[in-house]
Amino acid sequence: MKRIFLTYCMMTLIFLGKAQDIQFSQFYAAPIYLNPAFAGSSEMTRFGVNYRNQWPGLDHSLNAYSAYFDHYFFNLNSGLGLIINGMNETMAGLRTSEVGIAYSYRVQLGFNSFLRFGGQASFFSRDANLSQFVFGSQIDQTSGAIGDFSGELLGKDSRHRYMDYHFGMLYNNEHGWIGISAHHVTQPNISFVDDQISKWPMKLSAHGGLKFDLSNGMVNNFMNNTQNQKELVLAFNYKHQDPFNQLDVGAQINIQPLVFGVWYRGLPTVGNGMPNSESLIGLLGISLGNGLDIGYSYDFTLSNLGQANTGGAHEVSMRLSFLAGDQKQAGRKGSILPCFKY
Predict the structure, then answer these.
(1) Is the pLDDT of residue 338 over 90?
(2) How many domains does the chain have?
(3) How far is it, in rounded angstroms, from Cα 296 to Cα 118?
């Protein structure tokens, strides 16, 4: 039954064009993937990698990765980034790869308020092993057994290449941030069938949050074992990618060198006959010094798929940040984003 269900999902995604981007639970640990305006937003030099294993309890899972590099040029008020993304849907043998260049420009609106504009150009590659598909004609209606011959006239492999573009804006002051982004603005054709058009739907996102300093007041009495940073950060990330809508809301507590986080993903509604994915996500992060941060999160499935069936999702992120180049203007408190670490 799991195999039949997954087959139906993969066929729908590939041939009907109801594709959806992979969703990282640690979305701020993949900043350029979230919004190209985040390129250079740390005002440092960063290397980062993310890996996600979704639904490991099923026979075939979804695996995704993202790796990025970015640097901020103070003399140009600009950030430049390189991002490489990949996703592997093992049931269908579908592999999607992306290589992109992101650029952002920072405008100072006030002493501690800034607006960033970002854009990204990406080259995509989608490869499918069509011999892995299971069609209805192969399934025995009585026993559920799957036969070898489908009768469908499809090749064994298919490959598709195309360019794609993303844009975003991001505002921040020392207390919070808010941003918007649009991915796949040209909605390229992703169909593997020559005489059909299946557009990759545009993904729209709105995200933001607030930071609260916990180093003073009553809360400090319970955390007085360290003089390091102590703060509470609340954040949200709303996404629309036709026909799906989803909302992530949550909080992270930073007590250096540790970060504890929890948030909820999903909307308790049904759209187009399909329930939105819903998860409760927990995170533990640690800063190891010298700019190295490592985070681990686990998605506990709340949707009808069930935790016992899917096995949730595991996600790991690593990030290395350091100062490079001209450091005279580095470290201004107001210009550095006060957002989630993961």
Answers:
(1) no
(2) 1
(3) 28
